[in-house]
Specification:
about 575 residues, mainly beta, 6-stranded antiparallel sheet, 5-stranded antiparallel sheet, 3 helices
């Protein structure tokens, strides 16, 4: 923030005779300008004072300290936990049940899935995507060998907002939501085909579909409001961009594997008559490989990084997505079979530009990737790697200050637990390793916004039950702010009004689908080598929400006063 000197009006009056005389009108305007600047400075200081600073990490613990553990349904590959508004940890499970647990570990709710046919088997390989006032995830139902996919939309209180139209094939990964919350995007596939679908978020009905009749599809990655569509014909299009690819249909590599993109057209106003999927790359133009995870799209939507087949990470740093990446890739030791793609989504730092990337290989390697160079010479280089005991199939979590990265190994079923590592993000040095004594089947985990607690779900190797655990990994500094005195204020400011906020209507539950039940989730006793859990679980430090309304009102008041002084 830069502000000029605060000059009192009498300074100008005392000195104006030593300067060339100004007409009264210009002199009065000059005085008003100085008064406006002074009031602007004071008001901005008050507005900043109204927004408490986020708590900062003072130090990372030498070993994790378990805060609590609760029982939840067993997670599977593709499931994930997310830190949600209201300080809730939302987790999906392999049977489709969603749980919400407060960060203190007490209470919460559960949303069980009821199949559309009593004979159908319900499964889930989806995480959850949070929108402004609802969340979505995908559920697969299998009946007589045939798979169907349905997206469930829930309110933040476990209420069912809607269940989508029935979609052919199994859900592929996690659905994603448009920036405005009006549309839900996903892919769903059969053994030898796949479909990209857009749903209307108001009721879950199909808005648009396009299929690949030969090969199944990976989950889409999304970037909201890109600077352009990074492909031929995408210039000037700032609508959300989605990218996905073919996923392995067999052990052998598909030499003709393709990647695809979708954007609503420029000027889109809700008409689905002119929508189309764009093919980015295929076997003739340079195959992007096959993928089971969505790509990371970053850099204003013009850079993309993707874990694909043969344990490789392909890179399009600030270049068109329909151009072959060529040798711009990182290759990690392969898994079994050798064609196996990278399973984990790519993570990135939040402070550096360009970011540092983090990815597990398809084998037993985890590494960091630097982005170096400029323009067309930009490339990715290996920063460091560490060897792990079992594969790393969960997306890593990077601390908010970018100092460390948390890595979860899968383990080997219910016979050997996975390890959790805290790794120095800059050097790759492992600061600590703690066994979870649990199978962590590639399910995503979460951390608090302040970075002092991580939350992960797994399956206990001793009793086979599912759990959600909270580990404290860092200490936070107390947040205090010096008071700012407002020395001057306007006499009677004009009132500032704002338009009323409206929300999308909530559609009643689908007929024949019973409403969700809400049941408390009781903490379970913890048998762990970590620090013992106290009778009253510690609640991680959280900051009070910023009063955005107060800040907006103050800045609006500033605008009114400044306009007034120039009238």
């Amino acid at each position: 923030l830069f502000c000029g000197p605060l000059l009192h009006h009498h300074t100008l009056l005392d000195n104006h005779e030593a300067e060339p005389l100004l007409p009264i009108r210009l002199l009065n305007r000059k005085i008003k300008e100085q008064l406006a600047m002074k009031f602007l400075t004071i008001s901005l200081l008050v507005a900043l004072q109204a927004a408490p600073a986020a708590a900062q990490i003072t130090d990372f613990l030498g070993a994790p300290d378990q805060l609590w553990e609760v029982e939840v349904p067993v997670p599977g590959v593709g499931n994930a936990c997310a830190y949600a508004p209201g300080d809730m940890i939302i987790c999906t499970s392999k049977i489709g049940t969603v749980t919400a647990t407060p960060v203190g570990g007490m209470g919460g709710w559960e949303y069980p899935v009821v199949a559309t046919d009593a004979a159908a088997v319900v499964s889930c390989t989806s995480g959850v995507t949070l929108s402004s006032d609802y969340m979505v995830y995908g559920v697969t139902e299998t009946l007589a060998g045939a798979n169907t996919c349905r997206v469930h939309a829930l309110g933040m209180d476990s209420s069912q907002v809607w269940v989508s139209d029935i979609l052919t094939g199994a859900c592929s990964g996690t659905p994603v939501v448009s920036l405005d919350g009006d549309y839900v995007f996903l892919t769903h596939s059969e053994d030898t085909s796949g479909t990209f679908t857009v749903l209307e978020a108001g009721n879950g009905t199909i808005f648009f579909q396009e299929s690949d009749a030969a090969v199944p599809l990976s989950p889409p990655g999304i970037f909201h409001n890109p600077t352009r569509g990074s492909y031929e014909g995408g210039d000037g299009n700032r609508n959300d961009i989605l990218v996905w690819a073919n996923t392995p249909a067999a052990v052998a590599i598909n030499a003709n594997a393709a990647s695809y993109a979708f954007q609503f057209p420029v000027g889109f106003a809700g008409d689905n008559s002119d929508l189309a999927v764009v093919t980015l790359l295929n076997g003739t133009a340079g195959s992007p490989g096959e993928a089971t995870a969505p790509p990371l799209i970053t850099g204003g939507g013009t850079s993309m990084y993707w874990g694909v087949s043969r344990s490789s990470v392909l890179a399009w740093p600030d270049r068109s997505f329909d151009v072959s990446p060529g040798g711009n890739k990182i290759s990690y030791p392969r898994g079994n079979p050798k064609s196996l793609p990278v399973i984990a989504e790519i993570a990135q730092t939040s402070l550096a530009t360009p970011p540092v990337l983090f990815s597990g290989g398809a084998g037993i390697t985890f590494g960091a990737i630097d982005i170096v160079g400029f323009g067309i010479d930009t490339k990715v280089v290996e920063k460091w790697t560490i060897n792990t005991t079992t594969p790393v199939n969960a997306k890593a979590q990077v601390a908010p200050n970018d100092e460390v990265v948390y890595v979860l190994e899968d383990g080997t079923g219910t016979t050997a637990g996975g390890d959790v590592h805290q790794v120095d993000a800059a050097t790759g040095d492992v600061r600590w390793t703690q066994s979870a004594d649990a199978y962590l089947p590639g399910s995503g985990f979460a951390q608090s916004p302040t970075g002092d607690v991580i939350y992960f779900a797994g399956q206990n190797v001793k009793d086979g039950k599912g759990f959600l655990r909270a580990w404290q990994v860092a200490n936070l500094a107390p947040t205090t702010a010096a008071p700012v005195a407002m020395t001057e204020a306007p006499a009677t400011p004009a009132p500032v009004t704002s338009a009323p906020v409206t929300s999308a209507p909530v559609v009643p539950p689908t007929p024949g689908v019973p409403p969700p039940t809400s049941a408390p989730i009781a903490p379970t006793p913890v048998d762990s080598t970590l620090s013992p859990v106290t009778a009253a679980p510690a609640t991680p430090t959280t900051e009070p929400p910023t009063s955005s309304a107060a800040i907006t009102s103050m800045l609006g008041l500033v605008a009114v006063v400044i306009v007034g002084v120039f009238m």
